[in-house]
Amino acid sequence: MGKLFSISNYNEIKEFFHKKGLKCTPQRQAVLKVLQESKSYLSINKIHKNVKELLPETGLATVYRSLETLVELNLVVKVHLEDGCHSYAIAPEGHRHPIVCTDCNSVIEYTECPMEDLSKQISEQTGVQINTHFLQLFGKCKECQA
Ligand SMILES: [Zn+2]
Ligand SMILES: [Zn+2]
Fold this sequence. Notes:
By secondary structure, the chain is α+β, with helices and mostly antiparallel strands.
């Protein structure tokens, strides 16, 4: 997993929030910490459970709001699941594509972008200027194939 911040470096996180005019609340920090310590994506209920171990008073709605903020800040990504639900993972640094293992739920990053030529082609065909994209793949990781 790419890490934007090391868990110990809260000054950097605070600085980042401060620049965006936001407070780095203990809840937001706890959500980030929980996701950073996880090797796989987590459902909101699991995140809530783990955050409560750090901050017992935290409600589910607070965790949800914190996650939405962290997604907006590109610190966290929403991982879309095959059943239409979604979970959350720490955002990889830079432009990368997550590959989700459907057996063990781990998130592997694919660093190449196969979409650039395709975006151009889609632009030509539809007349739409493509600015960005979200590409996520599902599969079976090496460990799960063994
Ligand atoms: Zn796996
Ligand atoms: Zn891409």
